[in-house]
Amino acid sequence: MKSNNLIIEASSDEGLKYLLKNEHKFDLCYIDPPYSTGNVFTYTESRKNAVSNSRSGNIAYNDKFNREDYLSFLETNIKLAYELLSEQGSFYLHIDYKVGHYVKILLDNIFGEKNYINEITRIKSNPKNFYRKGYGNIKDCIFFYSKTRNHIWNDIREDLTEEDLKKRFNKYEENSGRFYTTVPIHAPGETTNGESGKKWKGVYPPEGRHWRVSPSELTKLDNEGLIEWSSNNNPRMKKYADESKGKKIQDIWNFKDPQYPKYPTEKNLNILDRIVRNSSNKDSMVLDFFAGSGTTGVACAKNERGFVLIDQSEIAIDTIKSRLTEESSLTNKEFDNLKLDK
To answer: What is the distance, to the nearest Å, from the Cα of residue 250 to the centroid of all Cα atoms in its chain?
Structure first.
């Protein structure tokens, strides 16, 4: 192989079996599989980015399953992917609201309920369905599982906006010219024998709580001017705006689909960028076996991760190659192509 990066033209199960046979391992797998819509999606040469159900178009992908066959299809593939995950691996599955609850049960059975991490709600579009006899649908979801609880997690944060900074750090320190806030120096849970349950400067932690650090460490922080005492003698720790790591990412993501996609069902690159950065490292390999437009590969290339992409659609493979060379720094020499015999 010329590189760690590989594009495989094959059905998902055949591609996965090939990887198993060749003993590949992945720290991250993301898939955006068919959604069991019951449709065959097509495109025309003049409008490859426009999905339709036209009988005269070329087939982009087939989503014609009944429920039982669909879940069996997913189960077969996900079990293979599970075997390909490293012990620090994570698995993300992007799905819509119509079948998500069935898929959640399937994933629980494969990964174990204890390895379920999140259901992420993704806002995919502006309000629509104005004449539907029910609430409009602007979301889909991403299920996040780990193979073990030792999965990679980089805890990437969102930048604080000016509004966030003003709201969170609303105190000003004259001598340093810095904005700050204060947070409690105790946490839930009593400590009966340890240092964190002892009296500090004549004060015990509140009932049912313990000091976040030892009394000696609190003294050190106080001497450095990092403890602020309120008028009623309640100590709190200073946190400065210029030291903030940003906002913890929550489980509702507002990443709408591209307005002019290069391939049907193309997902917002920011989704994959966030997943790749949080759940893999620079020496990691990432797998997507319903690769479609290749967004996973583009996110990996931009973040210096290796990837394997699998899709059985020739037009998908062409789109992937085009996007990798146009939207990342990769050249044709930096990924391999493999077409498996059907």
So the answer is: 11
What is the C-alpha to C-alpha distance for residues 104 and 203, in angstroms, rounded to an integer? 48
Residue 33 tokens read as 């599989």
Report residues of the chain scoring pLDDT below 50: 1-2, 49, 52
* Beta strand ranges found along the chain (DSSP E): 6-9, 26-31, 39-44, 47-52, 58-63, 85-95, 116-123, 139-146, 157-158, 171-173, 178-184, 186-188, 209-211, 227-229, 235-240, 247-248, 252-253, 285-288, 306-311, 336-339
- The fraction of the chain above a pLDDT of 70, given in percent, is 90
Q: Report angle CA 245, 212, 206 to the nearest 5 degrees.
A: 130
User: Under a CB-based contact definition with an 8 Å cutoff, are residues 17 and 44 in contact?
Assistant: no
For residue 173, which amino acid is it? E
CB atoms within 10 A of CB 188: 8
The bridge status of strand 6-9 relative to strand 306-311 is parallel
